[in-house]
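ugh ok so i messed up the first submission bc i forgot one of the chains. this is the corrected input, ALL of the components this time, i swear. 572 residues overall. if the numbers dont match what u have on ur side tell me asap before i send this to the collaborators (the ones from the other lab, u know who)
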Amino acid sequence: MAEPMELLCWGGDWDLPSVHTDSLIVLAYAKFSGAKLAVKSIDWTWRTITASVPQLHYEASTVTEPTQILNFLRKQRFNADYELTAKQGADTMAYIALLEEKLRPALLHTFWVDADNYANLTRPWFTSHSPFPLNFFVPGRQASLALSRILLTKAESPLLNITEVEGKIYSEAKECLNLLSHRLGNFHFFFGDTPTSLDAFVFGHIAPLIKAPLPSGQLQKHLNQLDNLCQFCNTILKNYFNASAEKRTDCSPTAIHDPVDANLQKLTQLVNKESNLIEKMDDNLRSSPQHRPNSTPPS
Amino acid sequence: FILKAEAAIMVRAAEPWPEKATLYQPLKEDQILLSDSASSLAVQTFLRMCGLPVQVSCCANAEYMSPSGKVPFIHVGNQVVSELGPIVQFIKAKGHSLSDGLDDVQRAEMKAYMELVNNMLLTAELYIQWCDDYTATEISRPRYSSPYSWPLNHILAYQKQWEVRRKMNAIGWSGKNLEQVYEDVSQCCQALSQRLGTQPYFFNKQPTELDALVFGHLFTILTTQLTNDELAEKVKSYTNLLSFCHRIEQTYFKEHDRESQSGSSRHSKGSLP
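and heres the new structure output, hopefully the right one now
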C-alpha cells in the first residue's frame, strides 16, 4: 500500500471513537480486519455540510456508504468475513437488513426527533462540533432528514403524523434488540470467537445508544436490560478501541483507574531517577578535586 | 368444552375463521403492478399454508380502502387488516401459526430474512417499476391509472411515482442505477439460495411465513412480463429457488391452477416455465 487509506468521519465522544453510526461501522470493521486507516474527523470543518460521511479516500477513488466501503476494503484484501460459511454470509445480509428496517428508525427518532434528546444532547453536540456559521444549519438539516426518512418508510400514507408512528417504531426496535440478544446468546461475537462485518454493524448501531447520556431514553433502558449486548459492546471497545478510550480520561467518568495509576507510577519513577541522578552528581562535584575534570558519567 | 374455554381466553375471543373472508387487491388483468402482486400472492400463500379459505376480490380502489394505504388487505368478520406482518399476527391471535415450532434463534433468523426480502426485493421491485423511466412510462403509469379517466389517471399516476421516488431518495436508493439494483437482487437471491440449500423449506420440513413471502416475490418476478427479462433471469440462475417455487405452486395452488390460470392476462405469463 503506497499511502494509507483516509477515512472522513464524525468525531468521537462518550467513550466512543465516533458518535455517528455509519462511521462507527467502518471504524470497527477496519479494526477487525486489520486495515490501517488514517482517520480524519470532519468536526469543525466545512465538510460537516458538504461531505457525506463516512467517506473513504484511496489513491484517486472515493467510496461512501458503509456497505460500499466494506466491499472496497474486502477487495483490498482486508476481509474479516473470510472464515464465514456461505450460510453465515447469507445470515449476515439478513441481519443487516433487520437492523436497517427495525432498529435504524427508532435510533434516528431517539437522537434526532425526540424533543428532549434533540434539544439537550444531539443539537448542542453537533452545534459545538461544527464551524461558524454552519452550526446553525447542520443539526437542523440532519434532523429534518431523519424525520422525513422515518415518515416516508414507516408512516402509513394517510396518517403522516409522527406521534402515531412512534409507538410502532419503538416496539419494533425493542423486538429487534431482543432478537439480536437471542441470536448472540452467550458468545462473544455473532459468529464464534472472531468479529465479522455483522459485529461491526451491530456495534455501530447499539454503541451510541448505550454510551450516549440521553435525557429521555426508553430504548436505552430496554437495551441496558440486555446484558449480553452491553457486554458485547464493551468487549469491542476494550479490545479494539482501547487506545482511544485511554486518551479520553476527562470526559469519561467511568475511565478505568489502572492507566491513570500506571502513568502516575511511571512519573514517580522518573522523578525518583532524576533525584537520584542529581544526588550523584552533587556527590561527585563535592568529592572531586578542583583541577581534576569531572568526567564521571552519570549512572 | 375445554376447547371452547381455551378459545375464549385468546385475544378477540377467537371467532372462528368465517366462510366469507375476503382478500382485496387491485384489478388483476389491467391494474396490479409487480410489487403489489407479489405482496398479494405472499398473503394468499400464507393463508393457504394455514388452511384458511379466502376469496380474492379485485377492486380498482383497493389501495384506498386499505387502512394503511397498502395492498393487500383482508376483511375477516368485522376487522380489516393489511400487509403480511400484521396479518400474520392477526391470524396468530386466532390460533393459527406456522412458526410456533421455531425456537428463539430460529425465529430471529426468520424475521431477519423476511426483512431482507422486504428491504431488497420489494425495494428493488418498486425501484424498477417507478424509478426506471422506461418501465414507468411503458408499464407502471398506464397500468396504475387504467381504471380512471383523463385527467385523473395522469394525476394519480404521477402522484404515486412522486411518492415512491421520494421514498427511494430517503433511503438512499435514488443514487443507484439499474445495474446496481439488478446486482442487489442477485445478491439477495444468492443469500436466500444459500440459506435454503437443499431443504424443502427454509426451516426444513414445515413451511413458515418466510416461505410464503419468498414464494410470493419470486413467483411473481418469474411470471411477470416487464420491459426486459433481466430480473427473471437473475432469479432463474438459482436452481434451488426455482424448484422451491415449483414445489409450493404444486402443493398449494395445484387444484386452483387450472381454474385461475385460464385466460392468460397480458401481464402475467401464467404458470412457471
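quick check: Chain A touches chain B through 28 residues (CB under 8 Å). that seems consistent at least. The beta strands of chain A are 5-9, 37-41, 55-58, 61-64.
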